[in-house]
Write a structure and sequence with these properties.
The protein is of the alpha/beta class. It has a domain of 202 residues. The protein has eight helices and six strands. The protein has a six-stranded mixed beta sheet with strand order 1-2-3-4-6-5, with helices on both faces. The longest helix has 70 residues. The chain starts with 12 loop residues before the first helix and ends with a helix.
Length: 309
Amino acid sequence: MQQHGRYLDLTTDYGFKHVFGMELHKDILISFLNELFKGKKVITDLVYNKNEHVGDTLKLGSVIFDLTCTTDDGSQFIIEVQRSEQDKFKERTIYYASKLISDQAPKGKRHEWGYVITEVYVIAIMDNFHFSDTKDYLHDICLCNRQTGEIFYDRLGFIYIELPNFNKTSEQLTSVLEKWLFVLKNMVKLNKLPNFLDDPIFQKLFQIAEYSNLSKREKAMYDVSLKRKWDEYSLLTSATNRGIRQGLQQGLQQGLQQGLQQGLQRGLQQGRLETLKENAQNMLALGLDLEIISKSVGLSIDEIKKLCN
């Protein structure tokens, strides 16, 4: 029997959808998005789009959940959680955004359209997956002038959240956004609503995310989602461990081979030097001139003189 925490894991497929993807409590998603935009954009309402986004192939099946919504000002959002590393991840998010833009063109009447494009944003929350080599946990990306840094187009944006890089404790949180990220990463480990989250929106979130409040059917769906995450994590850990073991074995084999080669080379060099010294000593015993001995054995006159001592 699976052991559950008191609250849902928000980085699972079902956990994320149950909290952020339901019309009944869309105020939770609105609150999160407004904190993410830090006043650059204010959302007062949104509707969830009925259709799922195109591109659900077998390779893209590891995407936990694509949530597409449209806000009250017509802006479109794709919010997804990505559990494991994926090839062409940047390209895939760019394709998704481009698809939302191209779908805005009226079919058959593009010449009458006038390219009136609403804002499009992709928000990717990454769990056990690194977006870059930096230690930053938040990446706000837009089109800009490469030379001056001036924003070229601000109605297409990508926000990537690296939860593995967010390691702040409750005492270190300095903003409401950081509280949200703390909840996303740590809610499943908590057994009660912390005092620093004693706010109506977080109170509602914790109530909705309490496992005991789910119906029997909802619990079953969450259990499947949670098992899927654990299985993926187990596969990732096994692959990582295999990679480490293989790396150690290859390194050991290479080290042994290099050691043998270096030892053999040093042995050959030492043997050759001893032979030259022996020949030089024999020539000295015969009374040959030092310069002649030097040219014969390839040793300097100083080295030959040392052999005389």
